[in-house]
Amino acid sequence: MEEAILPNQTSLTYFRLRGLSTNPKVQMAVFAMFLIFYTLILMGNILIVITIIYDRRLHTPMYFFLSNLSFIDVCHSTVTIPKMLVDTWSEEKLISFDACVAQMFFLHLFACTEIFLLTVMAYDRYVAICNPLHYMTVMNWKVCVLLAVAFWTGGTIHSVAFTSLTIKQPYCGPDEVDNFFCDVPQVIKLACTDTHITEILIVSNSGVISVVCFVILVASYAVILTSLRKRISAGRRKALSTCAAHITVVALFLGHCIFIYSRPAISLPGDKVVSAFFTAVAPLLNPIIYTLRNEDMKNALNKLTGRKVGKEEK
Predict the structure, then answer these.
(1) pTM for this structure?
(2) CA 294 to CA 57: how far, in whole Å?
């Protein structure tokens, strides 16, 4: 007789990733596109971090949080894109069980940390615009560091809880993950047991975090925009530009989280497109949004580039 699978046992040692397409021509096009996107993500976000470190005028709370956002975007895209690029040249697209668990852990670590970070950035803008005279008192460096520790700790706790819900399930049957990376909704469907309670916990965890943070963010920017309507100054245009950039990032990022994690673990036709946008396009748009709509960043980038050119000419 075959030995029964215990509730916490897993017989699978690897999963197969289905990828974005099985058509060779489409795979090549996807490979080229993602390679370009990943290169630009690394260049754009690393350039932002270097510029913020280099230019002392950007040593403020807003740019401290922006440098964290760029760092997270680099890490977030690195969790999934390199593996996807390698798998393009592989027919089987295998990933070990341990590697799959690690991918899920870091994916949700960086994603949840970014959600909390965006919420903190909204609070930072609220204080700066609605209470400017006390801004440096409220958002001093001690507070900024404590907030950074808080959103990184919150992301870690969320990721540990999320990953634990997944790995305690038994996996003994189907091994094909319907995506180009391991994510909880797709992996949990492969468990050979009833996962109804687990799916409820996943929705109540990630879904609620996404929705609640989104509501807080919308409320914060509504208060900010209401405050800006009462002002007539040059600073108003700058504040509106900054808020518009933040709102764009929030809508792009949290829109994906709400779409994927606020419903049961079922596959929809648009899931892969949304996942591709989430892992490759959103991290690329962040540096574009924050540099093109931010005069301080554009001036600092021009200054940094100009100095480098000057040194090369000498």
Answers:
(1) 0.84
(2) 14
